[in-house]
Write a structure and sequence with these properties.
Number of helices: 15
Structural class: alpha/beta
CATH topology of the largest domain: D-Maltodextrin-Binding Protein, domain 2
CATH class of the largest domain: Alpha Beta
Oligomer: single chain
Radius of gyration: 23 Å
Strand order of the largest sheet: 7-6-8-5-9
Number of domains: 2
Helix content: 25-40%
CATH superfamily of the largest domain: Periplasmic binding protein-like II
């Protein structure tokens, strides 16, 4: 073929073939995450290229708490935000209009109480041996966060009520200082700070961990005008989150994801993350147990007079996107694998009890993955169920 004819042919192909002359533009999303290990799936989705693989130009915006993330979303600073079930119902009752489409942290899909990430620790000189001994004691907590809901429900089950316990409102970082200096007798806190305090303060002891009291779970949500103006983009976002979560659950990736967390979360030691990730659950699915966990949290909030009436969880959760992910990218459920010998040599073990500032990250080349539909696993180190259709 003559050069002129070749040029015409190529020009014609460029005109009729979309994307041949330039890469299709990725959908930009600013994604809000909390400054702790709960944001791991979002951090991994950015750093390992799962967002990019699914055509999402994702940038993570880190805030210090769930309520701060919610305020950023309300102000239009972010497109997707996260919040746990102990705080989002209050914002919804006050008029926040968002719909949750994918999980963030926790295992609410399989059970409505999932709280092995939470615990209460006591000082050696506190005279506290049981939850009942908290009467009259100074207990560190964080009002409006799930650790406070956990504490309130635990003491309620002991018949104590809130009044007999001196709840001291502080941040997790402040809690460490107050506990270390003896200004707190006990503290209700979550990982990795729970383990950090136990290791830092000599003689401190774990009073209780978990116990199926509350659901330490959160979902990612957005305004309807963001979710539904481009349903395909939202679906790709949910698919990317699901695939990133599967990467997080694979124990072979423990070293890498620990580094990723320390890169995004200030003041976090990689070694501590590696020791405590076994207490976290990262199941992106949402379902009927998620809604029950929401209802249970609302009941507590009404009792605390933070809400005036029930709120229908169906007005918050839109499970259609994650259900499509589950249908189109099913993981084959396998039995629990043997604990990898390589991890045993490094001194890591499965848990003995079954688990009842803004950051702009440099783009990396997308990690080549065989996809969400690859055979999955149920791992000891992070108790979770891989993405699979509901039975």
């Amino acid at each position: 073929m003559r050069p002129f004819a070749v040029a015409l042919t190529v020009a014609a192909l460029l005109c009729v073939t979309p994307g041949l002359d330039r890469a299709d533009a990725a959908t930009p999303f600013n994604v809000g995450a909390v400054n702790d290990t709960g944001g791991l799936v979002v951090f991994v989705a950015v750093d390992k290229g799962f967002f990019a693989k699914h055509g999402i130009d994702g940038k993570v915006i880190v805030r210090n708490s769930g309520p701060e993330v919610t305020r950023a979303l309300d102000a239009g600073e972010i497109d997707f935000g996260s919040a746990n079930v102990s705080s989002i119902p209050v914002a919804l009752e006050r008029g926040l209009n968002v719909r949750a489409v994918v999980g963030y942290a926790g295992g609410s899909y399989t059970k409505s109480t999932d709280d092995n990430t939470l615990g209460i620790i006591a000082r050696a000189d506190s005279g506290i041996s049981t939850v009942a001994d908290l009467r009259g004691k100074r207990v560190g907590t964080t009002f409006g966060w799930m650790n406070d809901t956990y504490l309130v429900e635990l003491i309620r089950k002991q018949g104590l009520g809130e009044a007999p316990v001196k709840r001291i409102n502080t941040t997790p970082n402040g809690m460490i200082t107050l506990f270390d200096t003896g200004r707190l007798d006990a503290a209700a806190v979550w990982e990795p700070d729970l383990t950090r305090i136990l290791e830092k303060v000599k003689g401190s002891r774990l009073l209780v961990r978990g116990g199926d009291v509350v659901c330490f779970c959160a979902a990612m949500h957005a305004r309807p005008e963001v979710l539904y103006r481009d349903r395909d983009a939202t679906q790709r976002y949910v698919d990317a989150m699901a695939e990133a979560a599967r990467f997080v659950r694979d124990p072979k990736n423990l070293d890498e994801i620990s580094v990723i967390v320390s890169r995004h979360v200030s003041g976090t030691e990689t070694a501590l993350i590696k020791r405590t990730l076994k207490y976290w659950v990262y199941d992106m699915r949402l379902g009927k147990n998620s809604m029950k966990a929401f209802d249970d949290a609302v009941r507590v909030l009404i009792a605390q007079k933070k809400m005036s009436q029930p709120f229908d969880p169906a007005k918050y959760y839109d499970t259609s996107f994650i259900e499509r992910t589950m249908k189109e990218h099913p993981s084959v459920k396998m039995g629990a694998p043997k604990w990898p010998q390589s991890l045993k040599r490094r001194g890591l073990r499965p848990p003995r009890t079954p688990p009842a500032q803004r950051s702009e990250v440099p783009r990396h080349k997308p990690w080549r993955s065989s996809g969400i539909g690859e055979v999955g696993r149920r791992d000891y180190w992070i108790r979770t169920i891989d993405l699979a259709p509901e039975r």
